């Protein structure tokens, strides 16, 4: 949550306002754009179980009741991916660096591969579900 909030700080500092409508990424320096993007990536990635922030997911699934575990797999870890996409489209439309996209693509690919390989070797069904959720992200 901290990193999600920190992703808004460069916009607040550049615009002097807390209103989303007054934020414009073109007013940010390149360093501030990178800071905002990577803070959002870390914040939303941690909530989504993206590698290397996936540690909490296989620990949370086995101790959660089955209905909560299903809700985590079906909704709670997918919403941050949508929110990251919304953040990037809203604030960085047509201003994204190709290297940012490559970083997200590599992190997603590593997360998918690790998720499916760990899922294959699990004997606990809830841990397998957690790793499968990682793979789906």
Describe this structure in words.
With 137 residues, the protein is mostly helical. The protein is built from eight helices and no strands. Helix content is 72%, strand content 0%. α4 (56-63) packs across α8 (125-136) and α7 (98-120) runs antiparallel to α8 (125-136). The two termini are 19 Å apart.
Index terms:
mainly alpha, single chain, 137 residues, 0% strand, 8 helices, elongated
Total strands: the figure is 0
Radius of gyration from the alpha-carbon trace, in angstroms: 17 Å
Structural shape: elongated
Number of helices: 8
Label the structural class.
mainly alpha
**How widely separated are the two ends?**
19 Å
How many separate structural domains? Answer: 1
Strand content: under 5%
Main sheet, how many strands, which sense, barrel?
none
Summarize model confidence as the mean pLDDT.
79
Residue stretches low in confidence (pLDDT < 50, at least 5 long) are: none
What's the SSE pattern? Answer: HHHHHHHH
Work out the helicity level. Answer: over 70%
Quick synopsis:
By secondary structure, the protein is mainly α. It has eight helices and no strands.
């Amino acid at each position: 949550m901290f990193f999600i909030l920190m992703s808004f700080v460069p916009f607040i500092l550049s615009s002097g306002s807390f209103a989303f409508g007054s934020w414009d990424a073109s007013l940010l320096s390149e360093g501030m754009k990178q800071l905002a993007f990577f803070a959002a990536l870390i914040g939303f990635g941690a909530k989504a179980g993206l590698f290397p922030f996936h540690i909490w997911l296989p620990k949370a699934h086995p101790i959660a009741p089955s209905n909560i575990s299903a809700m985590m797999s079906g909704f709670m870890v997918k919403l941050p991916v949508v929110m990251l996409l919304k953040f990037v489209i809203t604030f960085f439309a047509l201003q994204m660096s190709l290297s940012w996209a490559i970083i997200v693509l590599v992190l997603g690919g590593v997360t998918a591969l690790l998720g499916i390989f760990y899922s294959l070797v699990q004997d606990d069904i809830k841990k397998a579900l957690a790793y499968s959720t990682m793979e789906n992200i």
